[in-house]
Amino acid sequence: MVYTHDMILNRAEELRTQGQHDPIHLIPNPDTPGRYIIADGWTRVQACIQHGVLDELLAEIHPHLNPEQAGWFGYQQNEGRNQHTDYDRAMFFLKMIDNGETATEIARKANLSKTAMSFFMAFRDLPEDLLLIVREHPVKFGSTAAYYLSKLYKHAGAKKAVAIALRFSEGEHPIRWLVNQVQSITTPLTSKQATTKKTIRYANGYFKERVDGFELVISVPEDKREAFSTALEALLDTVAMPIKTGLAPATPDHDADQD
């Protein structure tokens, strides 16, 4: 999770003025008897360490949770907090992948679609220069921004992607502005006559074959949707290129110890 100076300072002020409302959550450290791993409450711990707010914190120990379960426990706790950003979610997902979970299993546990999961996975494709900007503005750079910046970086290089990301971070631009900037660079507009090779129109939609791809818009009756979807996905699997999976960026041991 992105632990900014302001975030920890604000939590310190809350502890100082309001006290501790809820316990932090711990699990026994499987490698060091007598020590514990923070499953939820890291920000409060840092607030106490850095600002000397409280000498001790009330803690609840969960002896039956393993580290993976503790990580998901902390994730679910953070889902109810405003400071939990898409970057935090992506770093947690990548750590779980590094620990052996599949993207499909993570999507199921996090209640995400395959498309949404692919957007989160785009964070791992960003170079460090872009990640520095993302970490400075984690709320602004959600998973959609990460996906399009990754697309821009692969198409035009890091320098161009950083320039667009800086303009996005420094202005009041909505996410649509970023999407339009990336699309104008990666897929510049060309003559419709030159790109469309064939068009077939139906009573319930149309199909277009273009020089660089295909376009299909069609309404499918509800009783035929499942069969249509299955057949279409099978066809797509013959040509669609899956997003490459790789190792998650190195993260501190307390990344699962969120607050």
End-to-end separation in angstroms reads 8 Å
Please outline the major beta sheet: 3 strands, mixed
How many E strands?
6
Structural domain count: 3
Roughly how much helix do the residues carry, as a percent range?
40-55%
- CATH topology name of the largest domain, in short, is Arc Repressor Mutant, subunit A
Quaternary: single chain
CATH architecture of the largest domain: Orthogonal Bundle
Radius of gyration: 23 Å
Strand proportion, as a percent range, falls in 5-15%
How would you explain this protein's 3D organization?
- The chain is α+β, with helices and mostly antiparallel strands.
- The chain folds into 3 domains: 1-84, Conserved hypothetical protein from pyrococcus furiosus pfu- 392566-001, ParB domain (Alpha-Beta Complex), CATH 3.90.1530; 86-189, Arc Repressor Mutant, subunit A; 192-233, no CATH class.
- It has helices spanning 5-18, 42-51, 67-78, 86-98, 103-110, 114-121, 128-136, 143-156, 158-170, 175-186, 192-195, 225-236, and strands at residues 24-28, 36-40, 59-61, 196-202, 205-210, 213-218.
- The strands form 2 sheets. Strands 2-1-3 form a 3-stranded mixed sheet.
- Strand 5 and strand 6 (213-218) form a beta hairpin.
- Helix 1 crosses helix 2, helix 6 (114-121) packs across helix 8 (143-156) and helix 7 runs parallel beside helix 9 (158-170).
- The longest helix is centred in the N-terminal third of the chain and has 14 residues, at 5-18.
- It is globular.
- The model is unreliable at 245-258 (pLDDT under 50).
